[in-house]
Design brief:
Length: 127
């Protein structure tokens, strides 16, 4: 994929519409405090017009799963059953639900809940 930078920026912008989004590794400190809910991911890429899985993790500083599932549902609704295409000046990103789409992640602490999500991505560059 020749447009890794463009893809990574576009997917970051799209995910940021659902919750604060961070590329891993994440360092939370006084200058970058941990939000109550957020999405983390490591950008993934493949060749032109080849599908690949873009894994991400959704976190919620909570003892319940409500807000976590609301974010997952919002992403699922945006993708829909037929997928969604993000149009950019450099190309297009087709996003579908991967399988499994969402699954619980074992708790890292008693105060944080998390789930994994898999997006099935295809990137098309404009010629």
């Amino acid at each position: 994929m020749e447009n890794f930078k463009n893809y990574a920026t576009a997917i970051y912008s799209w995910l940021s519409g659902f919750a604060p989004t961070f590329r891993e590794p994440i360092i939370f400190d006084a200058d970058n405090p941990q939000p109550n809910e957020y999405i983390s991911y490591s950008a993934t890429a493949s060749g032109f017009a080849q599908q690949f899985i873009q894994p991400l993790t959704i976190y919620s500083k909570s003892t319940g799963f409500t807000r976590l599932m609301e974010i997952a549902d919002a992403i699922g609704t945006a993708v829909g059953d037929g997928g969604i295409v993000l149009h950019n000046e450099w190309g297009h990103i087709a996003i579908y639900k991967g399988s499994p789409f969402v699954q619980d992640k074992p708790d890292e602490s008693e105060e944080v809940r998390a789930c994994y999500m898999n997006l099935l991505i295809t990137v098309y560059n404009k010629e």
